Protein backbone atom coordinates (compact mmCIF):
# COMPACT_ATOMS: atom_id res chain seq x y z
CA UNK A 1 0.00 0.00 0.00
CA UNK A 2 1.24 3.47 -0.88
CA UNK A 3 0.14 6.83 -2.26
CA UNK A 4 2.19 8.14 -5.21
CA UNK A 5 2.33 11.59 -3.56
CA UNK A 6 5.10 10.28 -1.28
CA UNK A 7 7.48 10.37 -4.27
CA UNK A 8 8.72 13.90 -3.82
CA UNK A 9 11.36 16.02 -5.53
CA UNK A 10 14.38 14.78 -3.61
CA UNK A 11 13.24 11.97 -1.36
CA UNK A 12 10.32 9.65 -0.60
CA UNK A 13 8.37 10.59 2.52
CA UNK A 14 4.92 10.24 4.05
CA UNK A 15 2.83 9.17 7.03
CA UNK A 16 3.71 5.59 8.00
CA UNK A 17 0.84 3.11 7.69
CA UNK A 18 -1.33 5.77 6.05
CA UNK A 19 0.61 6.82 2.95
CA UNK A 20 2.93 3.80 2.83
CA UNK A 21 3.54 0.58 4.73
CA UNK A 22 6.22 -2.07 5.28
CA UNK A 23 5.35 -3.91 2.09
CA UNK A 24 5.94 -0.73 0.12
CA UNK A 25 9.47 -0.63 1.58
CA UNK A 26 10.06 -4.15 0.26
CA UNK A 27 8.80 -3.19 -3.23
CA UNK A 28 10.86 0.01 -3.21
CA UNK A 29 13.97 -2.05 -2.44
CA UNK A 30 13.18 -4.44 -5.29
CA UNK A 31 12.61 -1.48 -7.65
CA UNK A 32 15.96 -0.03 -6.59
CA UNK A 33 17.77 -3.19 -7.72
CA UNK A 34 16.01 -2.97 -11.12
CA UNK A 35 16.98 0.73 -11.31
CA UNK A 36 20.63 -0.08 -10.57
CA UNK A 37 20.60 -2.68 -13.36
CA UNK A 38 18.80 -0.47 -15.90
CA UNK A 39 20.51 2.84 -15.18
CA UNK A 40 23.96 1.86 -13.89
CA UNK A 41 24.41 -1.66 -15.30
CA UNK A 42 25.06 -2.94 -11.78
CA UNK A 43 23.79 -6.39 -10.81
CA UNK A 44 23.68 -7.69 -7.22
CA UNK A 45 24.59 -4.27 -5.77
CA UNK A 46 26.02 -3.83 -2.28
CA UNK A 47 23.69 -1.44 -0.45
CA UNK A 48 24.08 0.19 2.99
CA UNK A 49 21.02 0.83 5.15
CA UNK A 50 20.90 3.30 8.02
CA UNK A 51 17.93 4.62 9.98
CA UNK A 52 16.86 7.36 12.35
CA UNK A 53 15.28 6.94 15.79
CA UNK A 54 11.61 6.85 14.74
CA UNK A 55 9.57 4.03 16.18
CA UNK A 56 8.64 2.82 12.67
CA UNK A 57 12.25 2.71 11.41
CA UNK A 58 13.24 -0.85 12.53
CA UNK A 59 10.23 -2.46 10.78
CA UNK A 60 10.86 -0.45 7.62
CA UNK A 61 14.55 -1.41 7.63
CA UNK A 62 13.62 -5.09 7.97
CA UNK A 63 11.27 -4.93 4.95
CA UNK A 64 13.78 -2.91 2.94
CA UNK A 65 16.53 -5.47 3.58
CA UNK A 66 14.17 -8.30 2.70
CA UNK A 67 13.31 -6.71 -0.65
CA UNK A 68 16.95 -6.02 -1.49
CA UNK A 69 18.02 -9.59 -0.72
CA UNK A 70 15.07 -11.07 -2.64
CA UNK A 71 16.48 -9.26 -5.66
CA UNK A 72 20.06 -10.40 -5.13
CA UNK A 73 21.49 -7.34 -3.38
CA UNK A 74 24.00 -7.56 -0.55
CA UNK A 75 22.93 -5.53 2.47
CA UNK A 76 25.21 -3.76 4.94
CA UNK A 77 23.31 -2.67 8.05
CA UNK A 78 24.63 0.52 9.66
CA UNK A 79 21.99 0.62 12.41
CA UNK A 80 20.84 3.87 13.99
CA UNK A 81 22.96 6.59 12.39
CA UNK A 82 22.56 10.10 11.02
CA UNK A 83 21.77 10.61 7.34
CA UNK A 84 25.27 12.07 6.81
CA UNK A 85 26.87 8.92 8.26
CA UNK A 86 24.81 6.89 5.77
CA UNK A 87 26.15 9.10 2.96
CA UNK A 88 29.65 8.68 4.42
CA UNK A 89 29.35 4.91 3.93
CA UNK A 90 29.12 5.38 0.15
CA UNK A 91 32.54 7.05 0.21
CA UNK A 92 34.38 5.12 2.90
CA UNK A 93 33.00 1.55 3.14
CA UNK A 94 34.64 -0.70 0.56
CA UNK A 95 32.28 -2.08 -2.07
CA UNK A 96 29.20 0.03 -1.19
CA UNK A 97 27.41 1.03 -4.40
CA UNK A 98 24.38 2.77 -2.93
CA UNK A 99 22.47 3.39 0.28
CA UNK A 100 19.11 3.95 1.93
CA UNK A 101 18.61 6.15 4.95
CA UNK A 102 15.23 5.45 6.53
CA UNK A 103 14.23 8.81 8.00
CA UNK A 104 11.37 11.24 8.38
CA UNK A 105 13.96 14.04 8.75
CA UNK A 106 12.34 16.99 10.57
CA UNK A 107 8.75 15.84 10.00
CA UNK A 108 6.49 14.88 12.95
CA UNK A 109 6.89 11.41 14.56
CA UNK A 110 4.20 9.74 12.45
CA UNK A 111 6.19 10.40 9.27
CA UNK A 112 9.00 8.32 7.84
CA UNK A 113 10.69 7.96 4.48
CA UNK A 114 13.77 7.25 2.42
CA UNK A 115 16.80 9.27 1.31
CA UNK A 116 18.33 7.24 -1.48
CA UNK A 117 21.95 7.18 -2.66
CA UNK A 118 23.12 5.75 -5.95
CA UNK A 119 26.89 5.62 -6.09
CA UNK A 120 28.20 8.60 -4.14
CA UNK A 121 25.22 10.88 -4.81
CA UNK A 122 21.53 11.08 -3.94
CA UNK A 123 18.87 10.71 -6.61
CA UNK A 124 16.09 13.26 -7.08
CA UNK A 125 13.48 14.52 -9.51
CA UNK A 126 13.01 12.30 -12.57
CA UNK A 127 15.25 9.57 -11.12
CA UNK A 128 13.00 9.15 -8.07
CA UNK A 129 9.99 8.95 -10.38
CA UNK A 130 11.68 6.08 -12.23
CA UNK A 131 11.45 4.02 -9.03
CA UNK A 132 7.70 4.71 -8.93
CA UNK A 133 7.32 3.57 -12.53
CA UNK A 134 9.21 0.32 -11.84
CA UNK A 135 6.91 -0.42 -8.89
CA UNK A 136 3.84 0.31 -11.01
CA UNK A 137 5.08 -2.16 -13.66
CA UNK A 138 5.77 -4.77 -10.99
CA UNK A 139 8.63 -6.39 -12.90
CA UNK A 140 11.44 -7.30 -10.51
CA UNK A 141 14.69 -9.24 -10.48
CA UNK A 142 14.91 -12.43 -8.41
CA UNK A 143 18.05 -13.37 -6.52
CA UNK A 144 19.50 -14.36 -3.19
CA UNK A 145 21.45 -11.65 -1.43
CA UNK A 146 23.32 -11.48 1.84
CA UNK A 147 23.30 -9.22 4.89
CA UNK A 148 25.77 -8.18 7.54
CA UNK A 149 26.10 -5.46 10.17
CA UNK A 150 29.06 -3.11 10.63
CA UNK A 151 29.95 -0.39 13.15
CA UNK A 152 30.86 2.57 10.96
CA UNK A 153 31.25 5.11 13.76
CA UNK A 154 34.97 4.53 14.55
CA UNK A 155 35.82 5.11 10.87
CA UNK A 156 33.70 8.28 10.86
CA UNK A 157 35.36 9.64 14.01
CA UNK A 158 38.85 8.80 12.77
CA UNK A 159 38.26 10.55 9.43
CA UNK A 160 37.53 13.85 11.17
CA UNK A 161 40.18 13.48 13.85
CA UNK A 162 42.67 13.40 10.97
CA UNK A 163 41.09 16.47 9.36
CA UNK A 164 40.68 18.72 12.42
CA UNK A 165 43.37 17.47 14.75
CA UNK A 166 42.62 18.98 18.16
CA UNK A 167 40.36 22.05 18.25
CA UNK A 168 40.72 24.50 21.14
CA UNK A 169 38.08 23.46 23.66
CA UNK A 170 35.74 26.46 23.82
CA UNK A 171 32.42 26.44 25.66
CA UNK A 172 29.36 25.68 23.50
CA UNK A 173 26.12 23.70 23.69
CA UNK A 174 24.63 21.11 21.33
CA UNK A 175 20.95 20.16 21.12
CA UNK A 176 20.27 16.80 19.43
CA UNK A 177 16.52 17.12 19.89
CA UNK A 178 16.34 13.35 20.63
CA UNK A 179 17.16 12.76 16.97
CA UNK A 180 19.76 10.53 15.34
CA UNK A 181 22.49 13.10 16.02
CA UNK A 182 22.74 11.76 19.57
CA UNK A 183 24.15 8.52 18.18
CA UNK A 184 27.38 10.18 16.98
CA UNK A 185 27.99 13.73 18.22
CA UNK A 186 29.64 12.97 21.56
CA UNK A 187 32.10 10.55 19.95
CA UNK A 188 32.78 12.94 17.06
CA UNK A 189 33.37 16.04 19.16
CA UNK A 190 35.41 14.21 21.80
CA UNK A 191 37.62 12.82 19.00
CA UNK A 192 38.79 16.36 18.19
CA UNK A 193 39.24 17.44 21.81
CA UNK A 194 35.87 19.11 22.39
CA UNK A 195 33.59 18.53 25.39
CA UNK A 196 30.32 20.38 24.71
CA UNK A 197 27.25 20.28 26.88
CA UNK A 198 24.76 18.09 24.99
CA UNK A 199 20.99 18.46 25.40
CA UNK A 200 18.47 15.70 24.57
CA UNK A 201 21.19 13.33 23.42
CA UNK A 202 19.18 10.11 23.75
CA UNK A 203 17.58 9.20 20.39
CA UNK A 204 13.82 8.94 20.87
CA UNK A 205 11.54 8.98 17.83
CA UNK A 206 8.65 10.43 19.85
CA UNK A 207 10.69 13.65 20.27
CA UNK A 208 9.48 14.20 23.85
CA UNK A 209 11.28 17.50 24.50
CA UNK A 210 10.70 19.54 21.34
CA UNK A 211 10.16 19.07 17.63
CA UNK A 212 13.53 18.36 15.89
CA UNK A 213 13.62 21.32 13.52
CA UNK A 214 16.31 23.81 14.58
CA UNK A 215 15.29 26.43 12.01
CA UNK A 216 12.04 27.11 13.91
CA UNK A 217 12.89 29.47 16.76
CA UNK A 218 10.45 28.02 19.29
CA UNK A 219 12.42 24.75 19.13
CA UNK A 220 15.57 26.55 20.31
CA UNK A 221 14.30 27.77 23.70
CA UNK A 222 16.10 25.09 25.75
CA UNK A 223 19.28 25.73 23.78
CA UNK A 224 19.10 29.48 24.40
CA UNK A 225 18.60 28.95 28.14
CA UNK A 226 21.57 26.59 28.39
CA UNK A 227 23.82 28.98 26.44
CA UNK A 228 22.89 31.78 28.84
CA UNK A 229 23.32 29.56 31.90
CA UNK A 230 26.84 28.49 30.88
CA UNK A 231 28.00 31.72 29.23
CA UNK A 232 28.70 29.67 26.10
CA UNK A 233 29.92 31.18 22.84
CA UNK A 234 27.08 29.59 20.89
CA UNK A 235 24.43 26.89 20.79
CA UNK A 236 23.98 24.48 17.89
CA UNK A 237 20.91 22.36 17.18
CA UNK A 238 20.35 19.46 14.77
CA UNK A 239 17.22 18.18 13.08
CA UNK A 240 15.89 14.62 13.35
CA UNK A 241 18.44 13.02 11.03
CA UNK A 242 21.23 15.58 11.61
CA UNK A 243 21.62 16.90 8.09
CA UNK A 244 20.32 20.38 9.08
CA UNK A 245 21.86 22.81 11.53
CA UNK A 246 20.45 25.67 13.61
CA UNK A 247 22.55 28.16 15.59
CA UNK A 248 22.10 30.72 18.35
CA UNK A 249 24.86 33.17 19.28
CA UNK A 250 26.20 33.92 22.78
CA UNK A 251 23.29 36.32 23.42
CA UNK A 252 20.70 33.70 22.43
CA UNK A 253 19.85 35.39 19.13
CA UNK A 254 18.91 32.93 16.38
CA UNK A 255 21.42 32.97 13.54
CA UNK A 256 19.69 32.53 10.19
CA UNK A 257 20.95 29.94 7.75
CA UNK A 258 22.22 32.57 5.32
CA UNK A 259 24.07 34.38 8.13
CA UNK A 260 25.82 31.12 9.00
CA UNK A 261 26.71 30.84 5.32
CA UNK A 262 28.23 34.34 5.44
CA UNK A 263 30.50 33.33 8.34
CA UNK A 264 31.64 30.15 6.60
CA UNK A 265 31.94 31.60 3.10
CA UNK A 266 34.13 34.43 4.40
CA UNK A 267 36.48 31.86 5.96
CA UNK A 268 36.59 29.79 2.75
CA UNK A 269 37.00 32.83 0.46
CA UNK A 270 39.94 34.03 2.58
CA UNK A 271 41.72 30.91 1.29
CA UNK A 272 40.04 30.47 -2.12
CA UNK A 273 39.53 33.83 -3.85
CA UNK A 274 37.15 33.68 -6.79
CA UNK A 275 35.42 30.52 -5.57
CA UNK A 276 31.76 29.92 -6.38
CA UNK A 277 29.35 29.85 -3.44
CA UNK A 278 25.90 28.33 -3.96
CA UNK A 279 22.80 29.50 -2.11
CA UNK A 280 19.11 28.75 -2.47
CA UNK A 281 16.28 31.14 -3.35
CA UNK A 282 15.43 31.67 0.33
CA UNK A 283 18.82 33.24 1.09
CA UNK A 284 18.96 37.02 1.39
CA UNK A 285 20.32 39.51 -1.11
CA UNK A 286 22.79 40.67 1.51
CA UNK A 287 24.33 37.18 1.66
CA UNK A 288 24.87 37.07 -2.10
CA UNK A 289 26.27 40.62 -2.00
CA UNK A 290 28.62 39.68 0.86
CA UNK A 291 29.98 36.71 -1.12
CA UNK A 292 30.76 39.04 -4.06
CA UNK A 293 32.28 41.65 -1.71
CA UNK A 294 34.67 39.03 -0.32
CA UNK A 295 35.86 37.90 -3.74
CA UNK A 296 33.46 35.03 -4.39
CA UNK A 297 31.04 34.25 -7.18
CA UNK A 298 27.52 33.94 -5.72
CA UNK A 299 25.06 31.60 -7.48
CA UNK A 300 21.36 31.40 -6.57
CA UNK A 301 19.77 27.97 -7.08
CA UNK A 302 16.63 25.95 -6.34
CA UNK A 303 15.78 24.83 -2.81
CA UNK A 304 16.32 21.16 -1.98
CA UNK A 305 19.28 19.33 -0.47
CA UNK A 306 19.82 17.09 -3.50
CA UNK A 307 19.45 19.99 -5.92
CA UNK A 308 21.98 22.22 -4.16
CA UNK A 309 24.35 19.27 -3.69
CA UNK A 310 24.25 18.55 -7.40
CA UNK A 311 24.76 22.24 -8.28
CA UNK A 312 27.85 22.35 -6.05
CA UNK A 313 29.23 19.34 -7.93
CA UNK A 314 28.44 20.82 -11.36
CA UNK A 315 29.92 24.24 -10.51
CA UNK A 316 32.89 22.74 -8.61
CA UNK A 317 32.03 25.05 -5.71
CA UNK A 318 33.78 24.53 -2.36
CA UNK A 319 30.71 25.49 -0.34
CA UNK A 320 26.98 26.06 -0.53
CA UNK A 321 23.88 25.99 1.58
CA UNK A 322 20.23 26.66 2.13
CA UNK A 323 18.30 28.96 4.40
CA UNK A 324 16.81 25.80 5.93
CA UNK A 325 20.12 24.82 7.52
CA UNK A 326 21.45 22.32 4.98
CA UNK A 327 25.10 23.30 4.41
CA UNK A 328 27.52 21.52 2.10
CA UNK A 329 31.31 21.52 2.26
CA UNK A 330 33.23 20.29 -0.77
CA UNK A 331 36.55 21.96 0.09
CA UNK A 332 37.69 19.49 2.76
CA UNK A 333 34.63 17.23 2.96
CA UNK A 334 32.56 15.22 0.44
CA UNK A 335 30.04 17.86 -0.67
CA UNK A 336 27.00 16.54 1.19
CA UNK A 337 25.08 18.00 4.12
CA UNK A 338 26.41 16.87 7.51
CA UNK A 339 25.22 19.09 10.36
CA UNK A 340 27.63 17.80 13.06
CA UNK A 341 30.49 18.36 10.59
CA UNK A 342 29.18 21.88 9.87
CA UNK A 343 29.09 22.45 13.63
CA UNK A 344 32.76 21.45 13.83
CA UNK A 345 33.62 23.93 11.08
CA UNK A 346 31.80 26.72 12.93
CA UNK A 347 33.45 25.84 16.25
CA UNK A 348 36.83 25.71 14.48
CA UNK A 349 36.29 29.28 13.19
CA UNK A 350 35.17 30.51 16.62
CA UNK A 351 38.11 28.81 18.34
CA UNK A 352 40.74 30.06 15.87
CA UNK A 353 39.53 33.67 15.68
CA UNK A 354 38.46 34.11 19.29
CA UNK A 355 35.56 36.20 17.95
CA UNK A 356 31.86 36.03 18.77
CA UNK A 357 29.31 35.32 16.05
CA UNK A 358 28.21 39.00 15.87
CA UNK A 359 31.89 39.95 15.42
CA UNK A 360 32.24 37.39 12.64
CA UNK A 361 29.23 38.98 10.92
CA UNK A 362 30.68 42.48 11.16
CA UNK A 363 30.15 44.47 7.96
CA UNK A 364 27.03 42.58 6.95
CA UNK A 365 24.37 45.27 6.42
CA UNK A 366 21.53 45.20 8.92
CA UNK A 367 18.23 44.00 7.53
CA UNK A 368 14.63 43.78 8.62
CA UNK A 369 13.51 40.31 7.71
CA UNK A 370 11.48 37.29 8.59
CA UNK A 371 12.70 33.74 9.00
CA UNK A 372 11.33 31.15 6.61
CA UNK A 373 7.55 31.23 7.21
CA UNK A 374 5.84 27.88 6.56
CA UNK A 375 2.10 28.13 5.99
CA UNK A 376 0.18 24.86 6.37
CA UNK A 377 -2.25 24.17 3.53
CA UNK A 378 -3.00 21.23 1.19
CA UNK A 379 -0.94 19.59 -1.56
CA UNK A 380 -3.28 21.13 -4.14
CA UNK A 381 -3.46 24.61 -2.65
CA UNK A 382 0.30 24.96 -2.22
CA UNK A 383 0.66 24.72 -6.01
CA UNK A 384 -2.36 26.97 -6.66
CA UNK A 385 -1.06 29.73 -4.39
CA UNK A 386 2.29 29.96 -6.19
CA UNK A 387 0.44 30.02 -9.54
CA UNK A 388 -1.80 32.86 -8.32
CA UNK A 389 1.31 34.77 -7.17
CA UNK A 390 2.82 34.39 -10.64
CA UNK A 391 -0.42 35.72 -12.15
CA UNK A 392 -0.55 38.64 -9.69
CA UNK A 393 3.08 39.65 -10.34
CA UNK A 394 3.65 39.16 -14.07
CA UNK A 395 7.12 39.64 -15.50
CA UNK A 396 6.49 42.80 -17.50
CA UNK A 397 8.35 46.01 -18.42
CA UNK A 398 7.66 48.99 -16.19
CA UNK A 399 6.80 46.97 -13.07
CA UNK A 400 8.26 48.20 -9.77
CA UNK A 401 9.75 44.75 -9.17
CA UNK A 402 11.86 42.13 -10.91
CA UNK A 403 10.81 38.49 -11.04
CA UNK A 404 12.88 35.32 -10.71
CA UNK A 405 11.33 31.90 -11.32
CA UNK A 406 14.29 29.72 -10.27
CA UNK A 407 12.09 28.08 -7.63
CA UNK A 408 8.57 29.41 -7.10
CA UNK A 409 8.53 33.19 -7.47
CA UNK A 410 11.04 35.63 -6.01
CA UNK A 411 10.23 39.33 -6.26
CA UNK A 412 12.97 41.96 -5.97
CA UNK A 413 11.88 45.50 -5.10
CA UNK A 414 14.09 48.60 -4.80
CA UNK A 415 14.19 48.22 -1.01
CA UNK A 416 13.88 44.47 -0.48
CA UNK A 417 12.56 41.16 -1.73
CA UNK A 418 9.98 38.43 -1.18
CA UNK A 419 9.79 34.72 -1.94
CA UNK A 420 6.82 32.40 -2.36
CA UNK A 421 7.34 28.72 -3.18
CA UNK A 422 5.68 25.38 -2.47
CA UNK A 423 7.49 22.91 -0.21
CA UNK A 424 8.76 19.73 -1.82
CA UNK A 425 8.28 17.70 1.36
CA UNK A 426 5.04 18.85 3.01
CA UNK A 427 1.67 20.48 2.19
CA UNK A 428 3.19 23.86 2.96
CA UNK A 429 3.70 27.20 1.22
CA UNK A 430 7.01 28.85 2.13
CA UNK A 431 7.34 32.64 2.19
CA UNK A 432 10.12 34.94 3.29
CA UNK A 433 10.51 38.73 3.29
CA UNK A 434 13.36 41.19 3.70
CA UNK A 435 13.86 44.94 3.44
CA UNK A 436 16.30 47.60 4.57
CA UNK A 437 13.57 49.28 6.67
CA UNK A 438 10.73 48.01 8.86
CA UNK A 439 8.24 50.03 6.82
CA UNK A 440 9.58 48.46 3.62
CA UNK A 441 9.31 44.98 5.14
CA UNK A 442 5.70 45.60 6.18
CA UNK A 443 4.79 46.96 2.74
CA UNK A 444 6.33 44.02 0.88
CA UNK A 445 4.77 41.49 3.23
CA UNK A 446 1.31 43.06 2.99
CA UNK A 447 1.50 43.13 -0.78
CA UNK A 448 2.36 39.42 -1.04
CA UNK A 449 0.03 38.21 1.70
CA UNK A 450 -2.91 40.00 0.06
CA UNK A 451 -2.57 37.36 -2.65
CA UNK A 452 -1.46 34.37 -0.58
CA UNK A 453 -4.13 34.69 2.13
CA UNK A 454 -6.92 34.82 -0.45
CA UNK A 455 -6.29 31.18 -1.44
CA UNK A 456 -5.41 29.50 1.85
TrEMBL record:
Keywords: Isomerase, Magnesium, Metal-binding, Phosphoprotein. GO terms for molecular function: intramolecular phosphotransferase activity; magnesium ion binding. PROSITE patterns: PGM_PMM. GO terms for biological process: carbohydrate metabolic process. It holds the Pfam family PGM_PMM_IV. Its cofactor is Mg(2+). PANTHER family: PHOSPHOMANNOMUTASE, PHOSPHOMANNOMUTASE_PHOSPHOGLUCOMUTASE. SUPFAM superfamilies: Phosphoglucomutase, C-terminal domain, Phosphoglucomutase, first 3 domains. It comes from the Bacteria. This is Phosphomannomutase. Belongs to the phosphohexose mutase family. It comes from Bdellovibrio bacteriovorus. Residues 372-449 form the Alpha-D-phosphohexomutase C-terminal domain. The keyword Iron does not apply. Residues 6-137, 156-252, 257-366 form the Alpha-D-phosphohexomutase alpha/beta/alpha domain.
Amino acid sequence: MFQPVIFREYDIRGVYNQQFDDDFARLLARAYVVYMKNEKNISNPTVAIGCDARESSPAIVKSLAKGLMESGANVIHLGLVTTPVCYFSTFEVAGVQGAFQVTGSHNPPEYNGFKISVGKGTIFGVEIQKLLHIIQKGQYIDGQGTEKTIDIKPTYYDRYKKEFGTIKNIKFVLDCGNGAGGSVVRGLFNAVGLTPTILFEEPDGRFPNHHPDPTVEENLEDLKKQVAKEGAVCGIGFDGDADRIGVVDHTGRMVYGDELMVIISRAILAEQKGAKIIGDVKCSDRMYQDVAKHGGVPIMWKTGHSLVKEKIKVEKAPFGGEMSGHVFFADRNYGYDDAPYAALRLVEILAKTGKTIPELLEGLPPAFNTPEIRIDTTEEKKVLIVQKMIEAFPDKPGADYKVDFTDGIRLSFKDGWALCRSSNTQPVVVVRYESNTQAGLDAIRNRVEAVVNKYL
